[in-house]
Design a protein that fits this description.
This protein is an alpha/beta fold. The chain is built from 13 helices and 30 strands. The strands form seven sheets. Strands 11, 12, 13, 14, 15, 21, 22, 23 and 26 form a nine-stranded mixed sheet that branches. An eight-stranded mixed sheet has the order 1-6-7-8-10-9-4-5, sandwiched between helices. It has a five-stranded mixed sheet with strand order 2-3-17-20-16, covered by helices on one side. The radius of gyration is 23 Å and the shape is globular. About 1% of the residues have low confidence.
Length: 530
């Protein structure tokens, strides 16, 4: 710690969970605008992150320095900040650390494969942040802590209670999240949202691991009884976490994975689930993870009972739950698996025109991986009345450090080598667009996944969806046939055709920025315009 310039004499390192609770409930928060952390009836902590209830991607900066500047994919995702401004932000965080009454240090690993894991040290001023990272990092044994953590590979310095200085060059607001890949440090100022630490570390993995021949992926994963593994890609709200928690399969992880020459491995030691409208009926495994040791973030409860109100979105729709992997009843520890047999791309199509399941060719797989489509619906952001297409390269553009084509080429090579089949599953709307149709039911989507895992769609006859060319199965066990062909569920067939064309146009326009780096085969695998 002294090497970092931290001289605070009251540092709590690698506490037990009950000790984190004692500190959370008795000694935080320091910020006057932050609500007091409390405990729910189920034993989970209810913590609050003040104004920042989500990540601040517009305030994320990567230090422009000689070791990484020619590798980074610069642009709206990775915006540069000078080394001088970095030094100011770093010193600002350290000065704050040295003036706080308490500091918390959490040591852990990122990556379940010992050949590729990082040693990570988190320094923070909030006990809730420390418990969060205790959950999300892979927890070392006492022996590993003693022999493996004299030095670490990366530091996360979370001074989120203290604002950045807007007079610093490159700093636009009081929030500034900086990563220095040369010094192997991350600094957070002005945001108390715990997810900044998790996703910042994910971005570091996206930089480091591909250079070692390992492709990092924004995907969940699980494993069947026969050892067959499945990767599920998807943006927020598509069901990636929910569908990875399958009662018939072992959970490997819910969000961040890597694919090496040996197979896949989870980066994390915990899960970070959205919990808006969470219920035991729909998601029993996640619901039962709300217990002692878990952290509920920015969610309300009934004050007279301390029962959690999962329907309340008065603070944010982005209510979250952090818990260790071991809280899941069928988790696989160590969280590693073989080479995937099936790869699932999840999309929440609020236009209601994509089929619930379609089989992708290798070229279509690359096109849709680079596109990373889902849709925003009314109520998620101010001003949205109709569905809006959202494209996020590699199903995780906000986190990637290198050009999307690098991840796409690495994934394509893995799929070819291991003969994995890719499927596109729509967890969005059927019977019409948002506001007219209804959301695809969870039992329907699970039935589709069961059919894929059991090989029951492998030889089924398919028809091609107009414009998109997707191969749509004619039948699927447990799924009504009329749902499989989306036009059949629309009362206004002409409106369906027009909406399908509108979405195809959005795909084509989005892909224009990737055309020069894509082969003719991949470009031709996308939607066509009449």
């Amino acid at each position: 710690m002294k090497k970092l310039g931290i001289h605070n004499r009251h540092i709590y390192r690698n506490l037990l969970v009950p000790e984190y609770y004692e500190m959370c409930l008795g000694k935080e928060p320091a910020h006057p605008e932050t609500r007091q952390t409390v405990m729910s009836t189920k034993g989970a902590l209810c913590a609050y992150s003040a104004k920042a209830t989500g990540r601040s991607p517009k305030e994320k900066r990567v230090v422009e320095e000689e070791t990484s500047k020619d590798k980074i994919w610069w642009g709206n995702v990775n915006m540069p900040i000078s080394e001088r401004s970095w030094e100011i932000n770093l010193q600002r965080a350290i000065d704050y650390f040295n003036n706080r009454p308490y500091l918390y240090v959490v040591d852990g690993y990122a990556g379940w494969d010992p050949d590729y894991r990082f040693r990570v040290r988190v320094v923070t001023t909030r006990a809730y942040h420390a418990l969060f990272m205790h959950n999300m990092l892979i927890r070392p044994t006492e022996e590993e802590l003693e022999k493996d953590f004299d030095e670490v590979d990366y530091h996360i310095l979370n001074a989120g209670e203290f604002p950045a200085d807007v007079h610093t060059e490159g700093v636009k607001t009081q929030t500034s999240v900086n990563v220095n890949l040369k010094e192997k440090k991350m600094v957070i100022l002005g945001s108390q949202y715990a997810g900044e630490m998790k996703k910042g570390l994910f971005g570091i993995c996206h930089y480091e691991l591909p250079q070692k021949g390992v492709v990092s992926l924004h995907a969940s994963a699980n494993e069947g009884e026969k050892g067959d593994t499945t990767l599920l890609f998807g943006l927020s709200g598509t069901g990636k976490t929910t569908l990875s928690a399958d009662p018939h399969r072992k959970l490997i992880g819910d969000d961040e994975h890597c694919w090496s020459d040996k197979g896949i491995f989870n980066i994390e030691g915990g899960c970070y689930a959205k919990c808006i409208n969470l219920s035991r009926e729909q998601e029993p495994e996640i619901y039962d993870a709300v217990r002692f040791g878990a952290v509920l973030e920015n969610i309300e409860f009934y004050p007279n009972t301390r029962e959690v109100n999962f329907q309340d979105v008065s603070i944010t729709e982005n209510t979250r739950l952090s818990y260790p992997l071991e809280f899941m009843p069928n988790v696989k520890i160590p969280s590693v698996g073989g080479h995937p047999k099936n790869v699932i791309f999840l999309t929440c199509d609020a236009y209601g025109v994509l089929p619930p399941v379609s089989k992708l060719t290798p070229e279509q797989t690359m096109y849709h991986f680079i596109s990373g489509y889902t849709a925003k619906v009314a109520g998620t952001e101010l001003g949205i009345k109709d569905p809006e297409p959202t494209f996020s390269a590699c199903f995780g553009e906000a986190f990637i450090a290198l050009h999307p084509s690098i991840y796409a080429e690495m994934l394509a090579e893995k799929l070819r080598t291991h003969n994995a089949q890719t499927w596109l599953i729509n967890t969005g709307w059927t019977g019409g667009k948002f506001g007219i149709g209804k959301r695809m039911s969870l039992p329907t989507t699970r039935a589709i996944l069961d059919a894929i895992h059991e090989g029951k769609l492998d030889g089924v006859k398919t028809n091609q969806l107009p414009l998109f060319g997707l191969h749509v199965p004619e039948t699927c066990p447990g799924v009504p046939e009329d749902i499989l062909w989306p036009k059949n569920t629309w009362s206004d067939k002409q409106d369906y055709d027009e909406t399908l064309k509108k979405l195809a146009t959005a795909f084509v326009k989005n892909f224009e920025k990737y055309e020069k780096d894509s082969s003719a085969e991949i470009k031709n695998a996308g939607p066509k315009q009449d």
